[in-house]
Amino acid sequence: MSDLLKAYTVNDGSLREVDGVVDAAALREAAWVDLRHASEEEKSLVEHALGIETSPVNDYEPFQVSSHFSVTEQQVTLTGLLLSVTPDGEPHLVKITFVRTKNVLITISESGAPGAADMVKECEGALSNRAGRDDIFAMLLDMIVDHTDNILDKVGHDLDRINTLVFQHHLTTKRRRLLQASPRLRNRQLESILTALGPSREILVKLRRSVLSFRRMIAFLREQELDKKLSANLDTFERDLKSIAEAESDLSTTAGFLLDAVVGYIGLLQNKVMNVLTLVATVLTPPMVIAGIYGMNFKGMPELNWTYGYPFALGLILFSSVAVFLWMRMRGL
Prior knowledge:
Layout: E1 5-11, E2 14-17, H1 24-29, E3 32-36, H2 40-50, E4 69-71, E5 76-85, E6 91-100, E7 105-109, H3 114-126, H4 133-167, H5 173-181, H6 183-221, H7 228-294, H8 309-330
Parallel strand pairs: 3-7
Antiparallel strand pairs: 1-2, 1-3, 4-5, 5-6, 6-7
Helix pairs in contact: 3-4, 4-6, 4-7, 6-7, 7-8
């Protein structure tokens, strides 16, 4: 049996995976058929056995609502984008197509991404007392909410950690000064913060697209004739999506604030460097003028014949430097 084509039946109120080879007869008896990165041969088998089309409505217009949904006499086709995050933190949007026929629900995902595979496995263990196509569809929607909520929760923890690194409100004053006093350590920490902040923002952007795709899918499905139980399940799913969208908006605001804070912190550090350079240049300007004057070596300069002319020039240089430095300190510069 192919791991990419699975069929499930409902026996005595429980969901059971079809053992052995999934042929046309097994597909016609199934309540749920799952195609995950299936071959063209497997898709053709499902299409001929159930009399449906497994291809998406329109792959070439991804931002048009009408390109994701269609209704025919044989089927209702709905396409959503499921957010999947790889173990190394790289987010992907996996296209999942739901095909609702008279008695069978078919799910088609374009790849074997870890997020989609794990969600289907969770559904296999959570549908023990479900019966019927719409019950399976409702449970899949619940699993989508749980899957998305887990990703959102992890992003929230990552942003909390980044917030602590940026503002260091939990550290003592001594440890904060250590960060400010070590440019090498400071640069490494700023680089790590920006490196961690980038993936979190990318996940939130793609999560927003995922939630939007499923909200559009539910809006389209409501235009069809639905029984009361499925309609109630869609109400719950829509409320969950709204809650996730609000949480995503808050986290996006937090991520934007942290990015602005890091950029502002970098600006403060640059200003500090410029202030130091300005102070050094201002303090050294009078000594350089004095040294330039006495370095002219004109014959008519009386200081050239002084016994203590050299110490006098050095003292004048030192005095001018200290005087300018003290004046700037008094001015708070």
